[in-house]
Structure formats: structure tokens, C-alpha cells
Amino acid sequence: MELVRETKYDRAGELKSFDETKAGVKGLVDSGVETIPRIFRLPEEYSTNTTAHANESNYDIPVIDLEKEGIDRKVTVDKIRHASEKYGFFQVVNHGIPVGVLEEMLCGVRRFNEMDAEAKKVYYTRDVTRKFVYNSNSDLYSVPTVNWRDTFLSFMAPNPPKPEELPASCRDIQIEYSRHVMNLGFRLFGLLSEALGLESSRLAEMGCTDGLTFVGHYYPACPQPELTLGATNHTDDAFLTVLLQDQIGGLQVFLDNMWIDIPPVHGALVINIGDLLQLISNDKFKSVEHRVLANREGPRMSVACFFSTSLMPSSKIYGPIKELLSEDNPPKYRETTVEEYVTYSFNKGLDGISALLHFKI
Questions:
Q1: Residue ranges of the Fe2OG dioxygenase domain (predicted)?
Q2: Do the domain assignments include residue 5?
Q3: Scanning 47, 151, 177, 283, which has the fewest C-beta atoms within 10 Å of its C-beta?
Q4: Does any domain span residue 132?
Q5: Strand partners, 244
Q6: At CA 281, angle to CA 237 and CA 180, rounded to 5?
């Protein structure tokens, strides 16, 4: 009987071949792929089915009406405090950004990703110093499993790109939406400051609103969604994230060893605490692990705006806020710069391990 040897898996070669197409996951789908390439496949022991739906558990991620802030600010602050301590996530409605702007922003993500393939390749790069960065998986070569998504990124503050440096397909709405999110960020950081027992201006004065990174995600329909993920388990290496998701869903948060759905709410934005806010709050607010499922339905679009100066050179030092410390609550993290923290997190990739552990005292 003749023995058939399994062909050695050339993972590095497969990654390189995929990257060199400059067509991303959408290019695979457009080619008619029915079996997802091995680079996207999760380890066999990993299951995507360990899901507890929010309405079947004790974890009902709060939806907070910001319109009521003017009626009773204390109640709003209390709700944000509770959500930030227990879940690390909440949704906001009546946040001041018109629904039409939200819908047009999602359309802008779709327009760019569904441009002519050759025209889109012009923007494909792994050089994060570019004003507009489009690629598939920024951590493609450093993570064990590739995510089923394509992404474009721009740093919209403090030094935004010139309009002509952005693709026409998403330019106007990206600029308008980012302006709205910056305004919402100042409002949220005021409420979060008060939720920490500080003056409302404190987090903004510390520089938490200085930077904004805009990330547009495109998750094509997946022929084998049970074998991969749209985004593997991770926490966000920012102070705060404002997420716009479409109505397909798939976002989950990990609480008490369960994956909890965060269902889309029309007109709502998902807000989550980032690592840097957990660090400066000395663990009072929680940056919680989350992921995105792949789906047979699609494409799914989302826009994540991260409040952080990211990889920009900076000498500003961040550590646990002194007023929050005491003899019974000593600092749990060493001081760091945003650049150092994000560089460490970026180089590590989405490997399911929080970068915060590296900065623990």
C-alpha cells in the first residue's frame, strides 16, 4: 500500500500570496471561493459557538439615552459609571449625530470597498504613516489566525489628512462623521470624568481627546463562518472607542466566560472602554475582550473611531490618576506614553492577550 504524505503547509508563502493580490478578503469572495484558505481557519479546539444571547442571560448591555443628560445629568453619569465598571460597553442613543450621517458613513465604507479592484489597489499599503491606509489585517504576518475582513484607516486628529488625500468614494462623509465623533467624544469624556468622581474637564485636559483614529471595516459574506472570525478576541489599545455597526450584527463581548451579543440598535453607537482608560482609572473602568463573528450574510460594515494619539511621537506620560489612588488602592500599572503602549500592542497583534498585562506593576 502506497503511503501518501501530506504536503507541508507553507503558511508564510500563503500569507505573502494573499497580501500580494492587494484584493483582500473581498477579492477571495469575488473569485468565487467556497472553501476558506487555511490562513483564516481557527485552531480545531477553538469554538465560535459558545454564545449566550443577552436576552437569555443577566448581561443586558445598557442603552443610554444621552438626551436625558440635560434633564438629570447625575442619572446619566450613574448609568455610565455602572456600565463602565461592570461591562466595559454601553450603547448611546440621541447622541447628536443624525441618523442620515450614520447611514451615509456605512455607505461610504461600502463604496470604497466595492470600487473597481484596480483603482482600489492604489491605496493598498502596510505603511501606517500614509494618510489613508487600506489593507487586509494590519497584523497579517504576526497573528496565528487571519481575520475575515478588510480595513481602511486614517488618523483624523490631531493632524487630519487633506481632503484630496482621501478617496472620493468616502472622503466627504469620513470628514463629516469624524467631526461629529470628536464632538461626541468631548461630551462622553466629560461624563466619564464625573463617573470617576473628577471634574468634568479632567480627562480632556489630560489629553484623552487629542487624537482620533478612524477605522472602516468591511466583512464580506463568508462561505464557512464557523471556521473563522471577523475579528479575533481583543481589547482596544485606546482611551475610548465609538463604534458604528450596521444591522447584520456579530459583535460580542466576553463576560464571565460567556460571549454576549451586542445587538444592533438602529441609530445607536456602541461605546467601549479602552486599555488606556482602564490603566489611568487603575482598573475602575474595564477594557473588556470582544470579537466579531463571521457571517454567511454580508457584507457587514462597521466604523470604529479610537480616541488615542496612537503611534504619533509623544512624551506625555500616563499612569493611574493620583486622585483615584489610596493606601488601599495603590497604582496597578507603570507609567507609559500612548506611543509606547500602542506600539507594543500593534506589534503583538490580535492574539487574545491584553497588552495591559505588559504594563502591570
A1: 208-310
A2: no
A3: 47
A4: yes
A5: 303
A6: 55
Measured N-to-C along each axis, helices 99-113 and 171-195 cross at an angle, to the nearest 10 degrees, of: 130
Q: Is residue 163 assigned to a domain?
A: yes
- CA atoms 32, 37, 40, 45: torsion sign: positive
Q: Which residues of the chain have pLDDT under 50?
A: 1-6, 54-56
Nearest to 232 by CA among 110, 325, 140: 140
Cell of 333: 500599572
Cα angle, residue 112 at apex, residues 229 and 352 outer, rounded to 5° = 25
What is residue 316's three-state secondary structure? Answer: coil
The count of domains in the chain is: 1
Q: What's the rounded Cα separation, in Å, for the pair 345 and 341?
A: 6
Contacting residues for 336 by C-beta, under 8 A, at least 6 apart: 279, 317, 318, 319, 359
Provide the 8-state DSSP code for 168. Answer: T
* Euclidean distance between CA atoms 75 and 273, whole angstroms: 19
Buried b (16+ CB within 10 A) or exposed e, 166-193: bbebbbebbbbbbbbbbebbeebbbbbb
Looking only at the bridges linking them, the beta strands covering 150-157 and 133-135 are antiparallel
pLDDT at 349 (0 to 100): 74
pLDDT at 31: 97
User: How many residues does the structure list for the chain?
Assistant: 361
Which structural domain, as residue segments, surrounds residue 214?
Answer: 11-359
- Using alpha carbons, select from 103, 88, 106, 113 the residue that is nearest to residue 25: 113
Neighbours of 18 (CB within 10 A): 21
- H/E stretch holding 13 reads helix 11-21
Structure pTM? 0.94
- DSSP E strands: which ranges in 80-225? 89-93, 133-135, 150-157, 212-219
336 in a domain, yes or no? Answer: yes
Taking the C-alpha atoms of residue 255 and residue 210, their distance in angstroms, rounded to an integer, is 30
